[in-house]
Write a structure and sequence with these properties.
Shape: elongated
Oligomer: single chain
Number of helices: 35
Strand order of the largest sheet: 18-19-21-22-23-24-25-26
Strand content: 15-25%
């Protein structure tokens, strides 16, 4: 052979197919060109020998090669690789016998190789085989053939192939100096070829990443490897005009005569980036559109002048308009015109006028931030709908305001709930009348109006007298119906400008405006009292209730709501104390008495703990034997200022405040203990009588307390007399009868005190288990001189005898009274004629003397 060829001699032809699968057929074309040039058999034998050696190397280290190129399935194609190896071996051994025949054989072999094995899965392996040889090219190999005209032609062909590449191709040495560029590089980066050759590669790298790139290049040359296009990195090149351009780079390391190079294939991906951006934006737009369509909130977008440019389906549903009816319309058309006018001053304050325009609306809505202002939209059919609108500024990529977004939520249900809550906060839940809160507010407005008009305001406080009895006996449902009926009756008597309120329980308030004098209210008070007192049938029960009414006037009696309510309350309780069912105007004397009651009540709370209460015992005399048969326990109070407080002053207060319960328990315990002491001292049975208030009588555990007290003190039940009033019997007849029966069953005796002063009815004596009745002192005082009082006493004694009920006369002060009572067969007597109430020690000391002083007529 005239010349020994190396595989690198055909590198210019093979380079044209580097990295491009679709151009692999150019390999065959290179061999055909060699045939046309009448290349020697030695040239072809070198080609085949080198390819054979490489093929054998691949078969020996097939696993590593396949892993490097991510070959999908090695074992499935091993047979085809071995077939290629045998074909190449046979072809190489036959080279030299006939050049033309050898070229034909090689051409056919390669055609078969490409067509049969470069398709499908084998493509990547064969591509790697070609790439492998390209990486072994060296510039020195090209230099070896410079003196050879035929090789010079091959070099020119290499250049032509590089130029023909659609990618920007450049070769860089290990120092980062550019050795080879093609015209695509010039077009991509904007430089002339001579401006790039021999220059540092970093001139094509943006300054912001230049230092990092230098380090990366040094690292790459230390461990060179093939890197395919992209390889997951975002890369940028720097054009001559300073503009950065996104690129992808594929790298192939080269080595010749001990020198290392890298061949870079570069493509501009600007268009692809733009396309990716468009795709992403399209996806984002689709996502936003999907979100807007699915949002339950109304979304309306406007331009900077308030013209609607977009709406979502929720806005169409909320407003009743179609999309085409809204686009292009001013957004203010959706707002309630009256509301806009009302808010004119606030909305447009920055403009110094009361004009309504979109910019003022935006100013009020805090357009540069999310805000939740409440407005009223008007639907297409004209119905208003309250909404909460959040206004948000829309900005373009240059951060300029491009429009506004109004996100509105229908708050109709919330408004209803708020209105209901406000109504409940200001109105009575049962009657629907104003409650205390609204009453105070309206009373304040009425007083301000009265001040301006120089008139008065009257406040009437009404309390139902028998309401508790109805509630307790018939149930709360009947009580509620009664309250509703009373509310309606009061409302029917007043004007629409007046206020009727319920304070709670059975208390009502009437506020009357434009009053000139108290006299003009006389008829109104009478009408209200008459209307409330009329019989009422509820659930087959006929009810009779009367109102106790107290009144006061602004400004004479007070200048604030609290004071007026307090004074009307004082007047009302004075009516209660005076017999109920009537009306009184407030007077200052009432306030003094009220304050006194308050002081007494406060003092009583501590008096029991300080031991200020004491018991006195007034003896009861048998008008048959003249002997003491028992005594009545009388409560006395000397306060810390050494003042004697009369029972008529503090007992009613104790009942009103509830202090009567602990006080009554102390009285019972003390009286029982002293009675036992007196029985031991006198060596005979003696009874003790204890007064019981209506408040005590209705206590749930009163019976159990009495029984326990008797047991603890050691007093026999028959030695205890419980004195009750007629009113207790009439409050709840069935319960009273049951409770009295329980006391009687245990041996405790029941005495009706102050008989004749209450209901003045003897009929109930047959309905209750009563042991004794006490004739009130008001009848005893004048019975000797007043025939009427004597007749009453006679009737009481006669009826009691027939009912087997004992009679006690209290308030006996003279011998004539005693004589008359004995003549009428009265059983017992007590009064100053025998003894006043005495402390237990004094009574036991004077016990015998009192009995000796009793003078009964001889028989």
């Amino acid at each position: 052979m005239d010349k020994k060829y190396k595989f690198a001699d055909i590198a210019p032809d093979l380079n044209a197919i580097k990295g491009e699968h679709e151009q692999l057929s150019m390999f065959v074309q290179c061999i055909k060109d060699a045939k046309r040039r009448h290349a020697s058999p030695d040239y072809l034998q070198v080609c085949l020998t080198q390819m054979l050696e490489f093929a054998r190397a691949h078969i020996q280290d097939e696993e590593a090669v396949m892993a490097a190129v991510s070959y999908p399935d090695i074992s499935a194609h091993r047979a085809s690789h071995e077939q290629i190896l045998h074909s190449l071996t046979d072809a190489a051994s036959d080279i030299g016998q006939s050049a033309d025949q050898d070229l034909v054989t090689l051409e056919d072999l390669l055609d078969d190789w490409i067509e049969g094995h470069f398709k499908g899965p084998d493509l990547r392996f064969q591509d790697y085989l070609v790439d492998f040889h390209l990486r072994r090219m060296r510039s020195s190999a090209i230099g070896e053939i410079q003196d050879d005209p035929s090789l010079q032609l091959e070099r020119e062909r290499f250049r032509a192939i590089v130029e023909a590449s659609p990618n920007a191709i450049l070769v860089v040495d290990s120092a980062g100096i550019i050795c080879v560029v093609n015209s695509q590089v010039e077009r991509l980066f904007g430089y002339e070829r001579n401006e790039l050759l021999g220059k540092a590669l970093e001139m094509l790298v943006p300054a912001r990443i230049r230092s990092r790139h230098t380090q990366t290049r040094s690292t790459y040359f230390a461990s060179p490897e093939v890197r395919s296009m992209g390889a997951g990195r975002d890369l940028f090149g720097l054009r001559k005009d300073g503009v950065e351009v996104p690129i992808e780079i594929g790298l192939s390391p080269l080595q010749t005569a001990g020198e290392r190079f890298v061949l870079a294939s570069i493509i501009d991906i600007s268009k692809r980036k733009e396309l990716d951006t468009l795709v992403r934006e399209a996806h984002a737009d689709a996502l936003r559109d999907s979100i807007l369509k699915s949002l339950p909130s109304s979304v309306i977008a406007t331009d900077t002048e308030g013209q609607i440019v977009a709406v979502n389906p929720a806005a169409e549903r909320l407003l009743g308009y179609g999309r085409e009816e809204l686009i292009g319309q001013p957004v203010l058309m959706l707002h309630d015109k009256a509301e806009l006018q009302r808010r004119a001053t606030d909305i447009s304050r920055v403009y110094g006028n009361a004009a309504i325009d979109f910019h003022a609306f935006i100013e009020a809505g805090s357009a540069d931030s999310s805000d939740g202002r409440e407005w009223i939209y008007c639907r297409k059919d004209g119905t208003p709908v309250p909404v909460q609108i959040a206004l948000t500024t829309l900005r373009d990529p240059t951060d300029q305001i491009s429009g506004f977004l109004a996100v509105a939520n229908d708050i109709t249900e919330r408004k209803r709930a708020e209105a209901s809550i406000r109504y409940m906060a200001d109105h009575d839940a049962l009657t629907g009348l104003p409650n205390r809160n609204l009453l105070i507010d309206r009373l304040g407005m009425a007083m301000r109006q009265a001040t301006r008009s120089q008139t008065q305001v009257a406040l009437l406080l009404l309390d139902l007298d028998q309401f508790k009895q109805v509630n307790d006996s018939l149930g709360h449902h009947i009580g509620d119906e009664l309250l509703l009926a009373v509310a309606r009756r009061i409302l029917a008597q007043v004007r629409s400008v007046d206020t009727v309120a319920r304070l709670g329980g059975d208390e009502f308030v009437v506020v009357v405006t434009d009053v000139t004098s108290k006299d003009e209210l006389h008829d109104l008070v009478g009408q209200i009292s008459k209307a409330v007192s009329m019989p009422l049938t509820l659930d087959r029960y006929e009810l009779h209730v009367t109102p106790s009414i107290g009144g006061c006037v602004f400004p004479q009696d007070g200048e604030d709501a609290g004071t007026l309510l307090k004074k009307a309350d004082v007047a009302m309780y004075r009516v209660k104390a005076s017999g109920r069912g009537s009306f009184k105007w407030f007077t200052e004397s009432m306030m003094l008495e009220s304050q006194e009651k308050l002081l007494i009540g406060n003092s009583m709370r501590h008096a029991l703990d300080r031991g200020e209460f004491a018991l006195c015992f007034q003896p009861k005399i048998s008008l048959t034997t003249g002997r003491i048969i028992g005594s009545e326990a009388l409560l006395r109070w000397r306060n810390d200022r050494d003042e004697n407080i009369l029972p008529t002053r503090f007992v009613p207060i104790a009942e009103d405040t509830g202090l009567i319960v602990p006080l009554g328990e102390w009285v019972l315990e003390t009286a029982c203990r002293h009675c036992v002491d007196m029985q031991k001292q006198m060596q005979r049975p003696l009874a003790v009588a204890v007064n019981v208030s209506s408040r005590q009588f209705t206590e749930k555990n009163w019976l159990q307390f009495v029984i326990r007290t008797l047991s603890e003190c050691g007093l026999r039940p028959e030695d205890l007399e419980l004195e009750i009033t007629e009113s207790i019997l009439m409050q709840n007849t069935e319960e009273a009868a049951a409770l009295l029966g329980a006391f009687r069953d245990r041996g405790i005796r029941i005495v009706v005190d102050d008989f004749g002063t209450g209901y003045s009815s003897l009929s109930y004596l047959t309905r209750f288990p009563i042991d004794k009745i006490k004739i009130d002192r008001s009848f005893v005082r004048d019975l000797v001189t007043d025939a009427k009082d004597a007749a009453v006493v006679n009737a009481i004694i006669a009826m009691s005898k027939k009912l087997d009920i004992e009679v006690v006369a209290e308030g006996v002060e003279t011998a004539d009274q005693q004589q008359y009572l004995i003549a009428q067969a009265c059983d017992e007597a007590q009064g100053f004629y025998y003894s006043k109430g005495l402390p237990i020690g004094d009574l036991m000391r004077d016990f015998a003397a009192i009995e000796e002083a009793v003078r009964l007529p001889s028989h």
